[in-house]
Design goal:
homodimer, 346 residues, alpha/beta, five-stranded mixed sheet, 12 strands, 16% strand
Amino acid sequence: MKIVIDAFGGDNAPLAIVRGGVDGLKETDGFSIIFTGKADEINKILDEYCPENLRSRIEIEDCSEVITNDDVPTTAIRKKTDSSLVKGFKLLKENEDVGALISAGSTGAVLTGATLKVGRIKGVSRPALAPVLPTVEGGNVMLIDCGANAECKPINLVHFAVMASNYMKVMYGVENPRVALLANGTEDHKGTPLTQETFAMLKQIDELNFVGNMEARDVLSGNYDVVVCDGFSGNICLKSLEGMSVSMMKLIKQGVMSSFKAKIGALFMKGVFKNLKKKMDYNANGGAMFLGVEGIVVTAHGAATEQTIKSTVLQAKEAVEGDVVGKIKKTLENVDFDSLVKADIL
Amino acid sequence: MKIVIDAFGGDNAPLAIVRGGVDGLKETDGFSIIFTGKADEINKILDEYCPENLRSRIEIEDCSEVITNDDVPTTAIRKKTDSSLVKGFKLLKENEDVGALISAGSTGAVLTGATLKVGRIKGVSRPALAPVLPTVEGGNVMLIDCGANAECKPINLVHFAVMASNYMKVMYGVENPRVALLANGTEDHKGTPLTQETFAMLKQIDELNFVGNMEARDVLSGNYDVVVCDGFSGNICLKSLEGMSVSMMKLIKQGVMSSFKAKIGALFMKGVFKNLKKKMDYNANGGAMFLGVEGIVVTAHGAATEQTIKSTVLQAKEAVEGDVVGKIKKTLENVDFDSLVKADIL
């Protein structure tokens, strides 16, 4: 099995990307990597960083172009045909043995490219971006959609639920993932027409363990395995969590710097803060999945480091081996979507 | 000037509510309080807690009923006519010298009651719930709407912006409040049709310092004085911030408890954590304003303590004295809303 890595996407590309890929190879067997991008630059990094015995597990697809954050995604995907990203998607689409693509480049371009070049899973009209966040209780929760679709229909959210539920089963061994719908209250009737109709549909799907509406304050509580929402709300939720995390770290730092006593205390608490920072650093734990396309596509944060890419490689490998895409398809086939009507939820 | 306090709303009612009101009287002159609720219970608390010299600044409106969180707001407001909340609204509506109402009771009932019994400001079809949050930089930001209206039209968000901008001017002396629109990105065209149309309208209002779209990660950054959004998004934003704050405190506590060294460190850092907790405890800093009705209505958290109520009383007093409602009306009169058309924002 092969994983394509866009070696020229992200702020630290290509150095951190290529090194991170190599680190992934060091970590475990059973797969190889195709780096896409300027071959001479990639080779230079490999010459200096890659152990001789791993070189046979690496291929390079030479590309002359790079898609940046300044490019308009749709235009770039159409016109920059010799870019590391577009060529990567081509490899994923056309080769049976290529199972995944990873990019830390422009998220918009990755989502557009995946949809246009790789194609959607039959029946899924809206693929979704879905990061997995660590909960307070030590578990994990998938937030879907967190930004791919600002506007959604109820059926889109139902698909999100099916996809994420399968993902949590495969990747984290959660037997019967608890799926909750993000709303402005826990009562059944809460929310907008979108959440109300989605609620009614989710309730009817036997393949899902739908536990009802939830509030945003409980996303990290550990009470849920999947949080379903439209991409606008999910984006606000994810970024609010991130914003508060950054703010609190800043306030603690300010407090520590303002008193000698607190500085001493911080020294003793160094381990606690290090763990906290690590736990809150979602990027270190891999990338966000783009679920709903015909292959595993993972977007890593633009600031992705070697560690990020290594984690993302292992994540992608596991998703391919666990056949996440196949399992999503199977569940979708089992659900009679046409019969899902708006039930009375009050 | 008189402030009505619903003495029987909230988990700690009536003890903490009545005491908090008295503490407000102790703090400053120039106003008096009308407590609504069971007179004998209120009197008992006053006999034990209120200094003799302050009794002349307190009136009691005897009520036999209480609206609870289990009541359906609309039904309760209509039927429980002898409740502490409904009688409070009656006082606010009918008496020129009553300027504000405070309640820590059912938020739904307070919002419904304020709209039905006190009435909306002319031209404002949707009043909004708006808490003020402390920013990292030491300033404050008003988040409007954070839950009163799950569904909004662009014109509603424009009204929210006008109301909050005036509030920040009056209450925090911000000369030219920076108003931002919450979206899933900072680019002008980002968001849903709702945010896109609102963006176009806000840009045309000279009375506002509209600075564009913003992301949820920057709510507490100190870069904005007003964050405008629909009530569903605002609710998700506010509760995500709250959730992350609680989660991080929990993780720090877990870390501290797991190591002797960290326990020592935490002792030295006690002051830092105390300040952090205080800063993150929005409830200690007063209540959320319900802007858009003909009077100052403040909802305190259900778990409101004496300190919360005292802060809320001082907040309400300042809002009445600063004529927040009058200033909102004046700005609304100056804006030619009919001419606000959807401009080209791309």
